């Protein structure tokens, strides 16, 4: 039985991925030199489609990384000499904080509970802060920080760069890069690709300001990006596949994709609200509930629910970390169709009988 993966990442592969891989094989993409014109054409196309999909302006660079955890480390190394500030309400925001501490930075934090909405007017950023680190969509617990709240914080501290983790929400949120200095994500979630490629978007002002020299320092990345190359041999296949996936998303309509994401999330929310005996939504405030990763409290029924759904061909994720034994998580990415969700919800309903 072919399964549909609603896991938060890696997740369900993009529907046309088999066709793109066949094309890659027929064109010997995996054997191309990363200094060849053929590769440069691929990288240029992927960057072009990324800019169009996410409305990334020419003021920002696009760097190809190995993962989002690497992006966190490179961001800290290039942008923080002494002091960073972190909003933390989950495990992946914690990882960003850990990346700063591991490099000997003074990492100040504001902790808040999953599902709590921060009053940005009350957030006090220390004067010597060089970077504000925010996890816009917290994969570990299904919470998010509204973009308008992030913009409100930027308005209060316009001179401090913001680095935004959109790993499990991209390409859903529309990020205004006039207000966001850095954003990063990886491809194994909302782009339906195998893991192994991260995307790091950086304002040129930060590239020019970076004094860090070493592996993946911003100036060396930018120097190669000018000619659509990378300092080292990149994941050529993933870059090619990403370009194909993004072009298909654009052709289908970005607005349509975002609307579909909201409609699919609504299906899950309505089902859970109508069937409290199945479980309860972990994040109750709609303003801070993720549309792309939905966490459901099911108590001691986690293993039973997961196994019953798997037998019917639906794979959902367990809770993360401290929530592993009491929650399930359902991913809602562009590669998940409305029909996929309707079938999943039908099987969730049958579990109750």
Automatic annotation (TrEMBL):
Keywords: Amino-acid biosynthesis, Aminotransferase, Cytoplasm, Pyridoxal phosphate, Serine biosynthesis, Transferase
Pathway it works in: Amino-acid biosynthesis; L-serine biosynthesis; L-serine from 3-phospho-D-glycerate: step 2/3
InterPro entries from the UniProt entry: Aminotrans_V_dom, Pser_aminoTfrase, PyrdxlP-dep_Trfase, PyrdxlP-dep_Trfase_major, PyrdxlP-dep_Trfase_small
Cofactor(s), by name: pyridoxal 5'-phosphate
Family recorded in the similarity comment: Belongs to the class-V pyridoxal-phosphate-dependent aminotransferase family. SerC subfamily.
Protein name: phosphoserine transaminase
Keyword presence, Transferase: yes
Organism: Candidatus Roizmanbacteria bacterium CG_4_10_14_3_um_filter_39_13
Catalysed reaction equations from the record: 4-(phosphooxy)-L-threonine + 2-oxoglutarate = (R)-3-hydroxy-2-oxo-4-phosphooxybutanoate + L-glutamate; O-phospho-L-serine + 2-oxoglutarate = 3-phosphooxypyruvate + L-glutamate
Cited Pfam families: Aminotran_5
Domain Aminotransferase class V: start-end pairs: 10-298
Record GO terms (molecular function): alanine-glyoxylate transaminase activity; L-serine-pyruvate transaminase activity; O-phospho-L-serine:2-oxoglutarate aminotransferase activity
EC annotation from Swiss-Prot or TrEMBL: 2.6.1.52
Domain of life of the native organism: Bacteria
BP GO terms, sorted: glycine biosynthetic process, by transamination of glyoxylate; L-serine biosynthetic process
Protein biosynthesis keyword on record: no
